[in-house]
Amino acid sequence: MTKDVKDYEGLYFLNENGNIFSYPKKTRRGIREIFSMKVGSGYMQIDLCKDKKIKRHLVHRLMAKTFIENIENKPQVNHINGIKNDNRLENLEWNTRSENQLHSIRIGLRTTIGEKNSQSKINSEQALLIFNDERPYNEIEQDYKISISSISGIKRGYSWTHITGKTNIKSKKSKRTNCLRNY
To answer: How many CB atoms are located within 10 Å of the residue 178 CB?
Structure first.
């Protein structure tokens, strides 16, 4: 199955495998495949020309805009198998940023645990030192340049639990149960 690239109709077309081709031109006969290149982020990109202006595009976004209806107007295109250069139609879907991030965590591309978390300001060794540190929180805060709430989270078992071994799971007893026990 092939389809003209959206906004480049009559100039370029795509197939369901993510290959891009240019139609014959005045200066050239025959259809020609245009090869994409991998960029630093791991995605494939390609330069397309229209009205003597060259514009750079990510191949997965061209595929989605051309083949996949975006009824919910979602802004991002997700690679279902997590492989950024696999631009086959069956591997692409429209997503929100949140859906995309949750998907990457679910399939193991990203993690929210420990120093592999992009938001982490400390490493595993520092988390363990903070957990065992008996000084006041404001002194620890100055040494490690993290917030008091982060220090509290480590010490009380809400974060870095895979390092400290302490987990804080609040028990949710209903008021009704507690009232019945008093009788």
So the answer is: 9
